[in-house]
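As noted in the main text, all predictions were made from sequence alone. Below is one such record, for Methyltransferase C-terminal domain-containing protein.
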Amino acid sequence: MAGSTWFGMRIEGRDGERTLPQRPCLPACRGCGTPIRDGLLDLGLQPLSVEPVPVGAAAAPLVAIGLELLHCEACGLLQPAHRAARSAAPVPVTERCLATLIGRLRLRPGLPVTVLAEAAPAWLPMLRRFGFDPGLAPPGAAAARAWQEEQPPPVLLLAGDAFGRLADSPESLETLRELLAPGGIAVLEIPDLLALLEGVRFDLLDPGQEAWPSLLGAELLLYRHGLTVFGLQRGAGMLRLLVCHREDRGKPEGPELAARRAAEREAGIESGLAYLRFAEAAREARVALFEMLAAARRDGRLALGLGGGPQAVRLLAASGIGPDLLPAVLQPGLSRPDLVLPGSRVPLLPLEAAAEAEPDLVVVLDGRSAAEARQALGPAGQGVRLALPLPQLRVLPLAR
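Prediction:
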């Protein structure tokens, strides 16, 4: 219905304007505690596991969770309405990234370094290869504090995605300040939310996360807990924040911080307009993808997907698409032939199947570019139309 919004808002119908009762039971913001009045975007039931499953197990009960996005008007934190049943996967760390960090912070082996347990899989082996002997703080704020009482306070605290573990309270942020030595540095990772919103990449939102902060939102919440950001490193789809105690005056800000703040403000993150644009674009993209595949089915044209990774699982689940509309997904490097995607139950096929199936349309489901998709398909992709669902649906002409 045109003009529809969340409960408690104006509805434009054929009989004039009507108002639905206020929607109850939205939680308070897990970052600042402010009551949240309205939902932002409902992405439906999302499987908690994105690993392909054997065909024989596809009918078994699926562990899934409703992923409804909320936006706090007070601190700007993007968060799910649910409390995560599991932790999201740690952010990968490269040796180049660690070497850059060590060089910038002038770290040397022998200095006390602590890694929070949730970030350990990514950091521990690499730190040891660089000559460090890191301590491992156990999971949970209370356990980490008790452990730290018997350890030297770290001058470097590797916290990973602390915002993704906010759970029901911001206690994890307070723990960072308590663990960190005076003059020390904490390293936190947050998603590149600006790129995610502008690219309408709702398929990158892992329901195992507790929050997706912008830089502006992260700085606000850290400041409330006596911490401040003085440096920023950019990685693939993420930002790495260098954080110190608020009273530490010996760490001047890098110029990259001011540039990033300005970019987020210009994009409408501070005002909230960026989130509203993202939600509306996501709704349109989901409908457009569904309608395109339904039209292809009506017209007798064969559409296949390309790329069966986590993004495909989330995109298909959010769009309500199953094997009746998308008969199969071509998966590079497929190791076995009897797998389906969880949730949608769309079968996976090796890339070689494209030549035999001769699809009329290939939908790129994993965020790769048109050039990358053509390269992956090889000769079989030369006479095929490509569809790129995000940020808005585009059907590209035939490549000759």
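Residues 47 and 175 are 31 Å apart (CA to CA). Residues 273-298 form the longest helix (26 residues). These features were considered when defining construct boundaries for the mutagenesis experiments described in Section 2.9.
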